[in-house]
Amino acid sequence: MTSIPPTDFRSFLSSVGRVFAVFFRQGRKARRTRFFFLFSFLPVAVSLVIKFNQVFSGKPGREGGYLFTNLIMLFYLQMIILILALFYGTSVCSEELEGKTLAYLITRPIPKAAIVLGKYAAYMAVMTGMVILGLIFSFFVLNVDRLLDPSLYGLLGRYLGVLILGLMAYGAFFTFLGSSLKRSIFFGLLFSFGWENVIQYFPGSTQRLAIAHYLKSFLPATSSGRFSFLTFRLEPTKPGLALLMLFAIAAAFLALACLFFSKKEYSLED
Amino acid sequence: MIAEISDLQFSYGPIKALDGISLNLAEGAVGLLGPNGAGKSTLLRILLGFLAPQHGQGRVLGFDIRLEQARIRRHVGYMPEDDCLIPGMDAVTFTAYFGELSGMPRQEAMKRAHDVLFYVGLGESRYRFLETYSAGMKQRLKLAQAIVHDPKLLFLDEPTSNLDPQGRREILELIQDISSKKDIQVLICSHILSDIETVCSDVVILNKGRLAAQGKLSELRELHYRLYEIRIKGEGEGFTARIKALGCRVEETEDKLLKVYVPAEMDIREIFRVAEGEKCQVRHFVRSRTSLEDLFARAVGVD
Amino acid sequence: MTIREKGYAHWDGQLRERRFPWAPITWLGIRLAFKKKYFKFIIFSSLVPAVVFLVGIYISERIEDFQYMFKGNKQILEVNPAYFKTYLSSDFLLFMMVMILVVSGAGLISDDLKHNSLQLYFARPLTKRGYLLGKANVIVFFLLLLTLVPGLVFIIFKLLFAGDFRFLASYPWLPLSVIGYSLFVTGFFCSYTLLFSSLSKNRRYVSILIFAVYLFSDILFGFFYENYKKPAFALLSLKANLQQVGSWFFRLKPAYAVPWYWSLLILLAFGIAASIVLNKKVRGVEVVK
Amino acid sequence: MTAVIETSKLSKWYGNVLGLSDVSLEIEPGVTGLLGPNGAGKSTFLKLITGQIRPSIGTVRIFDQKVQNNQALFSRIGFCPEHDSFYEEMTGWVFLTSLLKLQGFSAGEIRSRAEKALDIVELSADKDRLIRAYSRGMRQRLKFAQAIAHDPEVIILDEPLSGLDPLGKRKLIRLIKAYREEGKTVIVSSHVLPEIEALTRTIILIHQGKVFAKGDIHYIRDLIESHPHMVSIRCDNPRGLAGQLLGEDYVLKVRFGPDRRSVLVETNNRDKFFALLLSLLVKNQMEVEEITSPDDNLQAVFDYLVGK
User: Could B101 and C126 be called an inter-chain contact, meaning their C-beta atoms sit closer than 8 Å?
Assistant: First the structure.
């Protein structure tokens, strides 16, 4: 990505918009999207099961809001957005190489950076759609008995924001992996389920090297020690700073991805 | 007799791919022709033992096509039409691998892999990774893996597609050389008719799942006229006109080759006389051995 | 003087029927896997626990030398079936096994689908079962390397360090347990991986599937378990099921109060379903293009 | 006429593998054929002039503008890649409109242009089928359609005819020829001389990463004419014919075929030789069965140019 003079900035944006339009459509129609859509709706199914169980067994069970915060939300945060971002993020560049369709894109009057950004944005939109719908459905299912409580909606909005920020940052990072590495999935898995998890247990500032850290800084402190898969000692960053960091991470990795995509010569063999 | 089949039928669901085919394949190179969807691939797959026919029976190399498929495949080599190479290894590994799968001992397979790679002309590049191979090299490698276990019967599906003329000629020469051995039979599927003409002595033409024609090329030849391919230097219009006046039918192909159908009673020397009169040098003059294209068109029923 | 004949030369050997027609597939698969640099890295890091446990066995024999480290807490280092089970069904080992599946297993069939190379295999005297077995055995090799081999090595070293056979006398069935459990886990992971590998031509997608389904089932379990405290939810998790069955193999009380045979049934059902799908998928490609 | 594409000292290595070496060319409007055997460097050259890869040495200019990092240029260039690869899950129509969208047209224009392009390549009836279900010929034509849909001034086609049956070839050749009439610059690569001959007279011969010849096809033909050349004649009296040929100085070698009915003659002046041959045949009233040139092909020319 070369520095873009301001006069060209509008045309650059419109290029991004065009790439976005094409791949948003393509992303929605692709067969894989159906699978991932189901995948991101699994928590909804889980919520339904819980709710039905509560209704039919007559036992009050845990409060919906509590379940929502501690279970559904972490489901999305620790699992679904990672998997989605990993697949779609690496797809941005890798699928063009695997399908040998790169030539169709890079022989268009569109800056290469716009291709990366446009596809990234398109897949972000697809992912965000899936996740938001899933989260909202789960939310309503679990809180069906007290929908009038306005404070709940504030919470929902905050959670949606966290997930979107998460998709954005992870998506950017995996886009970068896809543009630079051949084995992007492998390293992506190592990063998201190895590094991100392990590092949270380290004290001090070490945990600030994980994207998850900043995301969790937005969430209310959980009663730790209850769930084997989410015990860690969070030393939260202030929300403002965390927000800044997430944007910085996304921007930095996107810039790197654009740089790689523009400069690297991909060989289409295999 | 390398293969005999009778009343073979096969359908993919409601689509009838083969509709009662009986034929005997004698020794020598046989060409299998037919338009797309005629059932060539299906027939090939049944002969190979990939598929079991729903009706009818047959034997290939003396083995029953329904019951002894594994034995057939041990002695058969197959060169598929489409690219099917596994990246990440070199040609020797690849070829030896498939030799081993056919039942060659490991060391023998390795030795033989080198031999056949030299034979097909990949000797120099046999340690290169397959993903760096060009289209022509891939074609050769596919041939190499088909002959590595020294099969008794060789099936070649479109062996010359995607090749430049030189590559095509070399592959055809290899096939001719292989089929000239008395104890190895070759069956070629191709839509390039001239390839079949060069290599095969017999043809089988399929159309819509049925046998449209079968026999020795020489016997199937059209006898009412002779077909010559002529290439001349210079402007050919006058020449063509005068030849036509003599009663010949003339067709010109995209690459300026004249196809002249000469009536049986006409003296061929007339053509040269006309050429001299028109100051056209005759650069290329070949009697088309079969007029396979016509045979094909007639058998398949298109004009 | 003899002159080599020009042109096509016959091979003067005899084609044999192999006892294991699939053996070349396995060897090639293993060799190709080891060609990847990072794969060696994974294998070695997966073997780290084995080394740690081996050291543990050594320490257990010399416990008095290390007394100062444990301050009398001898319980930790008693080498018994639980010790083996801990190694063989530890979360880390299972995670590394899944990583190995992702790296070396995802492409096994899906690459062949992508490059149309199934037809090359089936033009050979190779049955579908042979093909699948050959592919599966690549996984078998790596997984046994992480389960069976260390397990047996532990037993041997325990006996060596102890200098007598008292250990084996107390648990005569232990070698069988190690073998049985290793084979079971390996068998399950084979069908699991091959199933996903046959579902798509896109290896990236397959990798994600293999990983996500494993992890997801576990999270789902944690989720319901946390909510309802019913151990039966352990049946949702592939990992917990494997660990339940593992406990049975080592004659231990399962971690969750669900009969082990339920877990076994679920895993077996998964395996059978996988083989049905595989049978269909691999045939489907072989026939129609 | 001014050159549309100029390259100077264009060279490309992949690691230590040579892709293209020292190519300085000027390409003018009209159809130019890029001819060479498989793996000669044709694709490398086409990728270099479309800026898909960077030259190791040298420069490319199209319309007197640099190509590298100048994506705006592609509104005037159409490229048809060599690989038979598409977004398989799209229909032909979606594929074409998507790529037109990337060209920057408005919605209405995308529609009309896509319709026109599909019309040209005769795919209108199949536009709503998935590309996955297209035959090879249809795929090839769709690939051509995406290269011309935005009405570019320069059209670059990498092996557009490969894998097509004779009918499909004829259709595509007719399409490409139509663009010659409109004053466009068209570059077509191929490994088959007759295909190129059917299209154009201006050709570039490329082999082993180097340009061996550039210019009018007659010039290439003349090259073929002047290099020693084998002619095989099968007739009823080969020895008699040979005797009459021997006296000429452009007859270099005479050999008899193993079937005793043919004579192989090597000559370095085909024109004179064939003229003589024809007159001899007529004068002697010979029964000729066959006249062929066993090595009359591209490879022979290359071998000659390489100096083999």
Answer: yes
